[in-house]
Every structure is written in C-alpha cells, then in structure tokens.
Amino acid sequence: MNALANRRFLKMNGLGNQITVLDLRGTKHVVSEAEARAIASEPRARFDQLMVLHDAVTPGTDAFVRIYNTDGSEAGACGNGTRCVAWAMVADPQMGDAAKTRLALQTKAGLLPAVREGETLFTVDMGVPRLAWDQIPLAEPFEDTSRFELQIGPIDSPVLHTPCAVNMGNPHAVFFVEDPYAYNLEQIGPLLENHPIFPDRANIELAAVKAPDHIVLRVWERGAGITQACGSGACAALVAAVRRELSARKATVSLPGGDLAIEWRESDAHVLMTGPVEFEWEGWIDPALIERAA
Ligand SMILES: N[C@H](CCC[C@H](N)C(=O)O)C(=O)O
C-alpha cells in the first residue's frame, strides 16, 4: 500500500498562500511529481505549496521538508509554508510538541530556523540571500551585478525591465514598478516565469516602494501562478529594494493576502520574515487519488 493512502494532511494558509502540510516522517516515501499534482487536484487538499515532512537528516534539526508547487515541481524554499510547518510541529494535537517554541527545519536549500512569537505568529530565518544564478552570498559591501535588461510586451500593460535577481533558496526576479496592480499579471506572469533568461524558471515579483519601510508586492509564483502571498518573494523584494537603495533594511511588505514584516539583518546578512498562519481543516488522502497518479 502506498504510504500516502489515507495519510492525514493539514490544510492551512499563510496570508492566503494555500499550504497543505503532510507528515511522512517514519516512512521512506518521496512524493512524486504526479502524486503532488494529484493531491493538488483534490479540492480539500488543494495547495499553492505542499510541505512534506520527512525524518530529520542532520542532527539538531527537527525535520527535513520537501516543498512542491501545484504543477508538481519542487522548490528549495517557501516562507509561508515554513511558518505553517512550524505551527503544525508545535500546535497540532497529533504532530505537535507544545513544549517547543523553536524549530530547525531543513530543506533542499538549507536550514530554516523558526521561532514561535505568538499563538499563530512565527518568525523564520530565511538565511543569506544570494545572487540568483551564480550563488554568491549577498552581504555588504556588494556590487549589483545582477542587473540586466529584460524587455517584454507590449501586451496590454506597461513594459517591464531591469529586474533584480535574488535567490532566497529559490529564484526570484523583482521588478520595481509604480503600481503592481496596473499590470495584467495573469498574462505576463507565465511569459516571465518561463523566459529563456531564467535557466530554472523564476518567481516573478512586481514591487512598489511606497516608503522606506513599506513595500507593496504582487507575486506570480513559479509552478503555482498568482498567489495571495509569497514569503520568500517578500524577502527577495526587500533585499532587492535595499540593493537598489530604495528602502531601509526593515520594512512591512503588503501582499494581496496581508502584511509580512521583513528584515535584512545587518550583522550577518540573514533575512528574517515574521507573519501569521491559519489552520483551516484536516483531511485524509483518498487512496483512489494516489492510485490514479501511479
Ligand atoms: N509561496 C512560497 C514560495 C514558493 C516558491 C515556489 N513557487 C518556487 O518554485 O520557488 C513562499 O511563501 O515563500
């Protein structure tokens, strides 16, 4: 019997970013692309990101987490999903250990320490951002070598150019614009995500710096499309804004689903993301769904 059959899942969200948490600790099962897509097609388990917990592989960490997009592809990081996993591991009656307030979660991209700040409020240390493709850690002083010209359109929206490329464990291209809501993101998102200039595709951010401590952001996510919020995207937007000398190192990032507090810490160049999570319901994976995916 496939380890996924009848397995319990938690449907959650982080600022409207739809997250499903699945605990596969104690099994060796690795969710396939087809299985992830099948789970995404189930209305009660539907997700922007599926966060799958595996047994910890490194001493001192609490779990290894695999992250899947709606299209079944894997991502190295997911800020909103990491907060949801952290909540599940402290507060869920079956999975959680209420004595814990700190967790060390590991993903393909590295370690993501999380701290519980309140009932449903968590801070995740998203690590040191890197230049998107050459993987150089970004710590000051730096040269903004990630600038390049990218011209798309004309479609029915203003032309976008010169994104700032930031890797937060996953690739982001941040475009600074006056009004992110003036663009038809549904139409231009897929063109940009799959533009040949992005070897690994990219999450696409439209960001407006409203004040040194306030950024308005919309995101087209790689493998998932428009989401209500993207934690790593909010981090990438702040890092890009600091690199372009548009904002302070600490800002509120307002997404369609709500606000995240982001700080690019001066002392060690780590990015800290603070925001809420919401538990919606629990469910069990229909074995027929998994059979069909096989
Ligand atoms: N929603 C996530 C990001 C998912 C990124 C994923 N779409 C990728 O392929 O990199 C977040 O809160 O950080």
Automatic annotation (TrEMBL):
<feature type="site" description="Could be important to modulate the pK values of the two catalytic cysteine residues">
    <location>
        <position position="221"/>
    </location>
</feature>
<keyword id="KW-0413">Isomerase</keyword>
<feature type="site" description="Could be important to modulate the pK values of the two catalytic cysteine residues">
    <location>
        <position position="172"/>
    </location>
</feature>
<dbReference type="InterPro" id="IPR018510">
    <property type="entry name" value="DAP_epimerase_AS"/>
</dbReference>
<feature type="active site">
    <location>
        <position position="78"/>
    </location>
</feature>
<feature type="active site" description="Proton donor">
    <location>
        <position position="78"/>
    </location>
</feature>
<comment type="subunit">
    <text>Homodimer.</text>
</comment>
<dbReference type="GO" id="GO:0009089">
    <property type="term" value="P:lysine biosynthetic process via diaminopimelate"/>
</dbReference>
<keyword id="KW-0963">Cytoplasm</keyword>
<feature type="binding site">
    <location>
        <position position="170"/>
    </location>
    <ligand>
        <name>substrate</name>
    </ligand>
</feature>
<comment type="function">
    <text>Catalyzes the stereoinversion of LL-2,6-diaminopimelate (L,L-DAP) to meso-diaminopimelate (meso-DAP), a precursor of L-lysine and an essential component of the bacterial peptidoglycan.</text>
</comment>
<comment type="similarity">
    <text>Belongs to the diaminopimelate epimerase family.</text>
</comment>
<dbReference type="GO" id="GO:0008837">
    <property type="term" value="F:diaminopimelate epimerase activity"/>
</dbReference>
<dbReference type="GO" id="GO:0005829">
    <property type="term" value="C:cytosol"/>
</dbReference>
<feature type="binding site">
    <location>
        <position position="17"/>
    </location>
    <ligand>
        <name>substrate</name>
    </ligand>
</feature>
<feature type="binding site">
    <location>
        <begin position="221"/>
        <end position="222"/>
    </location>
    <ligand>
        <name>substrate</name>
    </ligand>
</feature>
<keyword id="KW-0028">Amino-acid biosynthesis</keyword>
<dbReference type="Pfam" id="PF01678">
    <property type="entry name" value="DAP_epimerase"/>
</dbReference>
<feature type="binding site">
    <location>
        <position position="203"/>
    </location>
    <ligand>
        <name>substrate</name>
    </ligand>
</feature>
<feature type="active site" description="Proton acceptor">
    <location>
        <position position="230"/>
    </location>
</feature>
<dbReference type="InterPro" id="IPR001653">
    <property type="entry name" value="DAP_epimerase_DapF"/>
</dbReference>
<feature type="binding site">
    <location>
        <position position="69"/>
    </location>
    <ligand>
        <name>substrate</name>
    </ligand>
</feature>
<keyword id="KW-0457">Lysine biosynthesis</keyword>
<protein>
    <recommendedName>
        <fullName>Diaminopimelate epimerase</fullName>
        <ecNumber>5.1.1.7</ecNumber>
    </recommendedName>
</protein>
<feature type="binding site">
    <location>
        <begin position="231"/>
        <end position="232"/>
    </location>
    <ligand>
        <name>substrate</name>
    </ligand>
</feature>
<feature type="binding site">
    <location>
        <position position="49"/>
    </location>
    <ligand>
        <name>substrate</name>
    </ligand>
</feature>
<comment type="pathway">
    <text>Amino-acid biosynthesis; L-lysine biosynthesis via DAP pathway; DL-2,6-diaminopimelate from LL-2,6-diaminopimelate: step 1/1.</text>
</comment>
<feature type="binding site">
    <location>
        <begin position="79"/>
        <end position="80"/>
    </location>
    <ligand>
        <name>substrate</name>
    </ligand>
</feature>
